Amino acid sequence: MKLLMHSCCGPCSIYPLEVLKAEGYEVTACYLNPNIHPFKEFEARLNSLEKVLQDNDVELLATSPYGLEMFIHGLDGQFTNRCGYCYKLRLNETARLAANAGFEVFSTSLLVSPYQNQEKIIAAGLEAGKMYGVDFLVKDFRSGYRQAMEKARQMGLYMQKYCGCIFSEEERYLKINK
After folding, report:
1. Considering only Cβ atoms within 10 Å of each terminal Cβ, which end of the chain, N or C, has fewer?
2. 56 vs 8, 19, 138, 165, CA distance in Å?
């Protein structure tokens, strides 16, 4: 079964790729992350993903352009629900791409992180799937998070220090300075 996996970065894609391929899915990835800031962070995460995909013989179907301005405008001042908006933005685009390219199912590497809101991710994925007529694969990959991060370190991959958006970067520095 052909599956399109939204990938936020290389380290978070390691375990989901292993599981999905072992389960017999024909996986293709996409990097649709206009939320990531600054551009060098966006680029570093994409580079780490490309290394993981190459090592796993997985194609990268699409990459979003750097899109901070579009991301901020889309929030429309709703900063307290930015994560819900961010999940919806990325999974809607993944579902649209999956439907247009003939994939039967889609999922996301976001489901590996214990730091992400699983319920909001799943809700956004199911809604996007319904909107575009493609199934969203709900799979809790969190049990493999630590082993994936260790493997990423061994591979010398870039390991980010925050979720990706400008607001999570700010929170990162505020916590350090407290």
Report:
1. C
2. 16, 12, 22, 27
